[in-house]
Amino acid sequence: MPPTNPRVALFATCLVDMFRPSVGFATVKLLEEAGCEIHVPEAQTCCGQPAWNSGDRETARDIAKQVIVAFEGYDYTVLPSGSCGATIAKDYPAMFDEGDPWRIRAEALARKTFEITSFLTDVMGVETVAAEVPRLVTYHDSCSGLRSLGVKAQPRKLLASAGVSVREMEESEVCCGFGGTFCVKYPDISNSMVNDKVTNATATGAEMLLAGDLGCLMNMAGKASRDGKQIEVRHVVEVLAGMTDTPAIGEGQG
Amino acid sequence: MTVQSTTPQFKQNTKDALKNANLQTALRDTRNGFVGKRAAAREKMGVDEFEGLRDAARDLKNHTLANLDVYLEMYEEQVRASGGHVHWAKTAEDAQRIVLDICRKADAKTVNKGKTMISEECGINDFLAENGIKPVETDLGEYIIQLRGEHPSHIIAPAVHVTVPEVRDEFRKAHTHLDADRNLDGLDTLLKEARGVLREKYFEAEVGITGANMLIAETGQSIIVTNEGNGDLSQSLPRVHIVMASLEKIVPTLEDSATILRVLARSATGQDMSVYTTFSSGPRRATDPDGPEEYHVVLLDNGRTDMIGTEFQDMLRCIRCGACINHCPVYQTVGGHAYGWVYPGPMGSVLTPSLIGVEEGGQLPNASTFCGRCESVCPMRIPLPKMMRHWREREFEKNLTPSAMRYGLKAWAFVAKRPWLYRVKTRAAIMALGLLGRRKGRFAALPLASGWTGGRDMPAPEGDTFMAQWKAGKRP
């Protein structure tokens, strides 16, 4: 049985907070529709993944502790990101040694942390969303969500319930080349990878390119606009919440 | 280090690779071949059975590594009992010397070689040539790159970076004894010509060198798998057979080798089995119709035992199938030579710093998006991204991380650890950026972000931060 009125803490993630608040609001809308009580802990900044993946364990641990303290009091932590979600759900426990009390707290938080589409379907048992968006889209499976959290069928199922048609691209499971700091450390490789990705996405003839992680989306949207490719790039929750009236990622307000 | 690396110039190597039209053609042509074949082989076997085999293979190798000393001694004893010799090589230089000694004693002028990455790691070809002995590669891919004066760009497909027209040109240049106007269209024709040329060389060599996919402790056998049969001819026709293997290739029993064989070819090329799987059991016995008179095994350490007991021990489970390389989007973009040493792709990014030092090889574990595709296909379930991250930790501890990155990280961490300050700082920056970019929705150039904006636009922020809007009472 899905939980009734769970107290859900939203971790907006740093990129959504700064670049695309509308993804945060779309997430809130979906969670409310699913019957959740939303909380947005004030002490959230970043999940610490940049430090963890750069080999700075100490900073990563400090930030993890801050997140654990801010979020452990809720029934669930939900993020509009598979990447940040995987950092909390998979990496936090690995940051602390066995026997460290923080390890136990990290594991407890990890167990109740979910990426949004996975939370809606796997935890809340949502079968259909309220929005009706009869558009043709293609979907990029962001790496961490896909491989660390098993996010693959969930967004597609919810999209189908909103009347969205998904036309799969070639290599939808291949990395877009964002990779956090990778895209600025190795810009040439990253650029070639995102070129392949956008080429595959536009080859489907879809009107929209969706994904569940803002880093990948900004990378793909930035490449599409630079190369003059006409495809509307959006976070999947914007479509699921029926909030597609805002300009797409990288699109001007005129 | 016997084989010079260009790994410190990884960035320049990748720039060159991206501009190399032939390489890019070759990479595009092969990009999804191995990927599709592996997936089909997994489906054919049955996903549950295949995944179960991966678990079994991982457990088997973990057990072996936990008892490595026992199995190595058992193996040595068995090889001796069969009349063979085991030579322990602590370093690549030791291996070179041992191989040269054996070749000198055999009065070798020519050495035939089956494909062996351990020989590459030890720089055997150049070393033998410097000492007046001619190494002849008999694997087709290895033969092609030997003609070109190159090293393998892939551990199981050494010439995967070469296009067919380039092979044709190379053969015309090298095989001058053949009719200059002969027809070399079609892959079959090229294959036939290479086979014809190589056949004659099998009878010239006094020594044959092969690698080993596995060494079996229980029986003292070495195993090679090939698709061309060249390994068999290289090891059974010459008078002396040298097996070059690294010591983690050991498995306890003959039965265990079957577990590994069942995942090896499926993961590598999508075959159920390679075309030839050959077990070598020492020198020719009185009743054998053929085989070498002498059988030597050179067991290379070269830094591997130092990995035991560290966070890199799991890497020693690697069976060199190449699946991680085949599935790596970074490798698919730049090819194997850019990695700059012997082993490319994800396995190389973990192994190279272990073997040549993180100071020299540290670029490689950084050149990953941590997409995790490598780990998802590794038959031995090696957590490759995790180990690359461990290398980044070592670099961070040793202050090898570039200073701009370090300071950036520090400044960011200072703010990220203080939510009130973070709110103020991010809001100020984002509102300014939002104001500047609102009309167009993106930036074609931004100060300090040329890495990003060199090839793509930077989408502009919408305006205010989510946290500020939420606090101000905005709701969807």
UniProtKB/TrEMBL annotation, chain A:
InterPro entries: Cys_rich_dom
Coiled-coil ranges from the UniProt annotation: none
GO molecular function, one term: oxidoreductase activity
Record's GO cellular component terms: cytosol
Protein name (record): L-lactate dehydrogenase complex protein LldE
Residue stretches making up the Cysteine-rich domain: 8-88, 137-220
Domain of life: Bacteria
From TrEMBL, chain B:
Biological process terms in GO annotation: lactate metabolic process
Keywords in alphabetical order: 4Fe-4S, Electron transport, Iron, Iron-sulfur, Metal-binding, Repeat, Transport
Domain of life: Bacteria
SUPFAM superfamilies: 4Fe-4S ferredoxins, NagB/RpiA/CoA transferase-like
GO terms assigned for molecular function: 4 iron, 4 sulfur cluster binding; metal ion binding
Any Pfam family: Fer4_8
Residue stretches making up the 4Fe-4S ferredoxin-type domain: 309-339
Presence of the UniProt keyword Electron transport in the record: yes
Name the record gives this protein: L-lactate dehydrogenase complex protein LldF
